[in-house]
Amino acid sequence: MVNSQKAIWLRKPSEISADEYKSFYSHLSNFGGTEYLKAIHMAAEGTSEFKALLFLPKEAPFNLLMPEIQKKGLQLYVKRVFITDECKKLLPDYLRFVCGVVDSSDLPLNVSREILQENPLLGRIEKAVTAKILGELKHLLENDRENYEKFFDEFGRILKEGIHTDFANGDKIKDLVLYETMNGTRGKKITLAEYVKAMPENQKEIYYLSGDKYEAVAGNPALEYFRKAGFDVIFMTDPIDEWRSQSFFQYQKNYLVLHQLIYF
Prior knowledge:
Layout (H helix, E strand, L loop, with lengths): L1 H4 L12 H12 L6 E9 L5 E8 L16 E5 L2 E7 L11 E6 L8 H6 L1 H24 L1 H15 L1 H5 L4 H5 L3 E4 L8 E2 H7 L9 E3 L3 H5 L4 H7 L4 E3 L2 H6 L5 E2 L3 E2 L8
Parallel strand pairs: 3-5, 8-9
Antiparallel strand pairs: 1-2, 2-5, 3-4, 6-7, 6-9, 10-11
Helix pairs in contact: 4-5
C-alpha cells in the first residue's frame, strides 16, 4: 500500500487529492466505505518523532458494537516499513472508531509484537494521538455543529466510555457529550457547558434523569418540581449513561450531578 499511495501520510495535505484520500480511507476502514468526516494529519517532533494520518468516519460500521469481530487500533509503520495493521496500543478503546496510520522514526525496524506491548514510546504516541483527536472533535463541535451532531449520533455512545476509562482526559470528553433536556425540543441536544451557561443564579447543581427512552423520562412526574423552579433537567437515555454516571460526579469543578434526587 505504501508504493501505490506513495506514503500518503508523509505528504502535505495540499498535495493529496480527494480521490487519494477516499481510496486510502477505504483501504483503512475495513468495511468498504469511501466517505469520511475528516482527515487529520500529525507531525510530532521532540521526545517522540512520528507522522500520522487519521480519519474520523461519517457512519458507524456494522461491527462497532461487536468487539469480538471488530478491528481495533492503527496501522503502524517504522520509517515507512509496515509493522502491523492493528496496533491497539496507539489508541484508547473509546476512540476505536478512528482509523489511520502512524509512522514512527524512533522504533527499531526489527521490533516484534512482544516488544511493542512493552515499549513506552507507544504510550507517548497514544497520548499525543488522543489529544489531537479530542482537539479536532472540539474544533468540529465549535465550528461545524451540524456535522458534529451527526457524528455524535453515530459514535457518541462509544466516545462516552472514555469518561469512565480515561481519567486524564475525562473533562475534555465531558465537553464533547450532547444531551436532550426537559426544556429543549425533542431531538435538540446541548453540551454540558451550554446547560451550565443557561442555569439561573439560584441553581447550584446539574440535574439529570435516566431512563430507557425519551418518552419515559419526559413523562416522569418528578420533573414538575424542577419545571416550577425554573431548572432544566438533562435526559440520559443511552444505556451506557447509567454505567458512565458512576464516574461523572461533577462538571467544571463546582457543579455536582445529583442523580439520586430525581431518579425513580
